[in-house]
Amino acid sequence: MIRVTAVSHYLQPVHEGTAPPPLDAALKQVCQENFRRIDRFIELALLGSGRCARGRALAPDCGLYLGSGMGPMVGNIACQEQLIRDRELPMPFDFINTLGNSAGYYVAKNLGLGGQNQFISRRGASFAAVLTAALVDLECGAVSQALLGVVEEAPAPVAEHRRRQGLAADAAVAEGSHWLLLERDARTGYRVEREQVARYAAAAPRAAIFHDSIGGAWVTERLEKGENCTLADGDAARGWELFHFRA
Amino acid sequence: MHPVGIRGVGLSCALGLNAVDCVTRLFAGAVVPDRLRLDHVAEPVELSYYRIPDDAPPFDPRRFERLVPAVVREALSGAGLDEDERRRLPVYLGSSCFSIGYSESHYAAALAAQAPDAFPMPCCGYGDLAELARGAAGSVGPVFLYNTACTSAANALLGAQRALASGRHEYALVVGAELANRTTLAGFSSMQLLAQRLLPFAAERSGIVLGEGVGAVLLSAHPEAGDYLLHGGANNCDSHSVTTADPRGESVAAVLRQALDITGTEEVWGIRTHGTGSGAGDVAEAAGLRKTFGAMPPLSALKPWLGHTLGACGVNELVLYRGALQRGRLPALADAGTPDPELGVQALTQQTDAPSGRYLLNHFGFGGNNTALVLERP
What we know:
The structure holds two protein chains of two kinds. Chain A is of the alpha+beta class. Chain A has helices at 24-30, 40-53, 73-85, 92-96, 102-111, 126-140, 158-164, 214-224, and strands at 2-14, 63-67, 117-121, 145-152, 173-184, 190-197, 229-235, 239-246. Chain A has one domain (2-246): Peroxisomal Thiolase, Chain A, domain 1. Chain A is 33% helix and 27% strand. The longest helix of chain A has 15 residues, at 126-140. Chain A is globular and about 55 Å long. Chain B has a ten-stranded mixed sheet, sandwiched between helices. In chain B, a hairpin with a 3-residue loop joins β14 (357-365) and β15 (369-377). In chain B, α8 (250-262) crosses α9. Chain B is globular. Chains A and B meet through α3, α4, α5, β3 and α6 of A and α4, β5, α6, α7 and β9 of B.
């Protein structure tokens, strides 16, 4: 039996002309050290993973599965401005922070994780992608615990970021970091059950606010509130896989 | 761990435009990298670079639109998948660059046109290459896009092998894709990691030479007689440094041992090293190999033929190494430089026989990401 034994949910609306709140104080609560040269994407990953793992004994083989539809935007934007607009070579640490797994490196360093460390994207369904990968590894015995999460930035200026994603000019956008700790053979916590169905009509409720992994936000918000929920992955063409989270 | 069968392969890299040509070229002597000029920066840089010989402008990302479908069709040709099997095919794709070249081009064009609404990263997300692969395969299956630096495609192979072993799919298409782009070349230049010549494990090694390559592998959950087998492997994270591997090789040894353990592998007949020719990377890999093996199996280093294709190297070099094993020979470098006594290991300089049995494939990347895979020659 695979269960969710810890959850963390961070969803922060981001508005035009206003910087999202600094995370320094929150990070001090969950970080072993003051990491330098990290960007907002890494900060969000450290915050969400740190809150989820706080007070939990992580197994030596605990796998880390980080997902994101957009990936580290701030690092990529900085590199592209330096290289294309300013015609300079990018700063080395801006370049390193463009890697999908740089955030996973800092999470591993912070939580003392030396095991599996993956970055997997599937655009708006990245939460389902990392959840699937983690369940496969838990079921086959590659890991006994899986710390999985999705992170999305909302880089300034917000108007540009809306256009980048094809959103309406007045769409409400957010940054987020949403995490689960899954354990095989746990006795308490939400059971995670998979179900294949040919038809599925009830998609997740349309969110009032957008980031690319809002489906992950929807799950972690429900679980933090103590509510059962179901995440649907798939479409009419290939069929549906349902992930039930039940107390 | 349940092994999966390799049912088809495709490859375009500096060695050629299909897998057979690439393997043939692997046994036809050394390859000299091309010269590539990064000339849109204030102080232009000229680099050694292994280009795909497709006669296209080097920084045009639209080359993906021809190359990805071509290698996917090559991998699927002869595999006999029916329409429904293709439709359900999941795509596991590993890349370092993904669509960054499109963003570079569109942003540069908007700036050149003095467009008031020009903004960086206009093409975001990772999905475009997977759509090219799905389109060529006729698939509407799920996609898993791996971006873990130089282990990306190796992790895609590992993820696909485990998903097939778990019974979730009958087949999986795994793609590695890397093409020349300004961000990667400028980033590696900025970090001063590039060399003119790639000399893995040699005393004279001075850095890596990048290359481009697009490869595809079709895996089957039900291996048939004669299939090469992917037994799976292991992945871990070394939190020594985000850019530099631990010179003691502890996490390298740990991932190699875990890969051997989880696949039940007792004897290894050869190793496809990561072998980048970088100062610190080769030190860590050599230390990890020495900690793991008493008697060192023959070591092959393939990057001097196709360059370091970064996130795609896991698939690209698997295709090449399997092709060499099919010929019954382990590839050897004509000139491996001077052995480095501090490393205590050296890449093969004489081709040797490749018997049936198991082979290890090493992959290491930025962010401390390490992946080892076990391949079996039937």
